[in-house]
Design brief:
Radius of gyration: 28 Å
Strand order of the largest sheet: 6-5-7-8
Number of helices: 12
Largest sheet: 4 strands, antiparallel
Number of domains: 2
Strand content: 5-15%
Number of strands: 10
Distance between the termini: 35 Å
């Protein structure tokens, strides 16, 4: 998000560092850059290059967020003095025109510095016309929402690629399915069914989707049935005797012991584009309702229970007392948790990784639009308030100092949630959802 950050030296220090100071600074920056490169290589060697790729993807998402602010600010005629990836000590930078670009040591975010974001920032009189606060409402709004807009555009692009290039599983009632798994020692296993077989008929009657096969078999507990199977384009008839009880639920139904695997179906470019937009919109609404549920009294209580369970190393006491244990997955992921989950997803394939990055982009985009400073949505709220209060060509400027207590409280909550999420992801990681 756009941030107001203090410059690295006093505004009046036009002379800059002396030769010795500059030489020491360059040597220090080179050392820090070498340490960052070494740390990156260590992640790839000691962890995996998949993990490194996931980290790079997350950093790219942050970069695109800030690029959205940068482009719209430049387009609006605002003065942008800095565009940095990371926080902390400067590793490397260069200046083009009035903007300094570069990298900092801690790759935990990024920022674009636009002058005059609020009434509390002092700027030289000659630059006042190029401040954020002096621009029109549409221009300020475009800059404030540009970061989230970039996340939504990336989400649409990711979903489009998933649907058009990789494909998604055919619908449940589709005939584009095959046996994906066979339960050991089940009637299917004893009859010789193997993954990849296609069941095309039951007792001589053609069937299509897996639900239709299941419906025919469930009504025949304990009976011997005839099923036609296509394997390697050869049609064969098998005669398994169905179990008379489901081994897990205990229901008295016919049980064969197979699970379906659906073929991947690629959508056409136009269909994929429309579907990607629709799914992004649906996920935006789901993210918004999830945020509301998380910060509700019951959601906060559940999160505290999750933290408590993490501190105890499990939920045995809750189970012993009869109280429901906290859901280990009902929590926010820290960057560490996101990288871990994405790395686990990559063990299954890159499609789950793309889906996870899609979900992260949508959630971050929605979260940044929460109407509280210092989030981007807070700048939207302030600009909208100023627009409403302005009358007859006279601009009203909100006094941001009055919002400082609330802003400090928001920052405190974000820090606490972030640290607790990091603690949970390290001390008690959630189970692998891709196993």
């Amino acid at each position: 998000m756009t941030e107001i950050v203090a410059p690295d030296r006093a505004a009046g220090d036009d002379a800059g560092p002396g030769p010795d100071e500059r030489e020491r600074g360059e040597g220090s920056s080179a050392l820090r850059l070498a340490l960052l490169v070494a740390g990156t290589l260590a992640i790839g060697i000691l962890g995996s290059f998949t993990t490194l790729a996931v980290v790079a993807a997350l950093i790219f998402m942050i970069f695109m967020h800030e690029l959205g602010h940068y482009i719209t600010a430049k387009w609006s005629g605002m003065k942008v003095t800095e565009f940095f990836i990371g926080f902390g000590p400067r590793l490397w930078s260069f200046r083009r025109g009035e903007t300094e670009y570069g990298l900092k040591l801690i790759p935990a975010g990024a920022y674009v510095r636009i002058i005059g974001m609020s009434n509390i920032e002092e700027v030289p009189p000659e630059d006042e016309g190029r401040t954020y606060r002096q621009k029109s409402y549409p221009r300020r709004l475009s800059v404030a929402v540009a970061g989230s807009a970039m996340h939504f555009l990336m989400a649409i692009a990711l979903m489009f690629g998933l649907l058009a290039l990789h494909g998604e599983a055919a619908p449940l009632d589709s005939d584009r399915w095959a046996v994906g798994a066979v339960t050991p020692d089940s009637p299917a296993d004893e009859a010789g069914l193997v993954p990849g077989d296609r069941i095309v008929a039951v007792d001589g009657e053609e069937v299509s989707g897996f639900p239709q096969v299941s419906e025919r078999l469930r009504t025949r507990p304990g009976e011997t049935v005839s099923i036609d199977v296509v394997r390697d384009d050869v049609r064969t008839t098998l005669r398994p005797t169905l179990a008379d009880q489901h081994p897990i639920t205990g229901d008295e139904v016919g049980f064969l012991g197979v699970g379906p695997r659906y073929d991947l179906v690629r959508l056409g470019p136009l269909t994929a584009a429309v579907e990607a937009v629709e799914r992004t919109g649906t996920t935006m609404w789901q993210s918004l309702t999830s945020l509301g549920a998380f910060f509700s009294p019951s959601g906060i209580t559940g999160y505290l229970d999750t933290i408590s369970s993490g501190a105890e190393g499990g939920s045995e006491e809750s189970e012993a007392s009869g109280e429901p244990a906290a859901d280990p997955d009902a929590r926010l992921l820290s960057p560490v948790g996101a990288v871990r989950v994405a790395s686990q997803a990559a063990e299954v394939g890159w499609a789950p990784v793309i889906l996870l990055l899609f979900l992260i982009n949508v959630f971050v985009g929605v979260f940044n639009l929460v109407p509280l400073l210092p989030l981007d949505g807070g700048h939207v709220a302030v600009a909208t308030y100023e627009r409403i209060r302005s009358r007859k060509g006279r601009r009203h400027f909100a006094d941001v100092t009055k919002l400082m207590p609330l802003t400090v409280g928001v920052v405190g909550v974000l820090v606490l949630v972030g640290l607790s999420a990091l603690y949970l992801d390290i001390a008690n990681p959630a189970s692998n959802p891709f196993q």
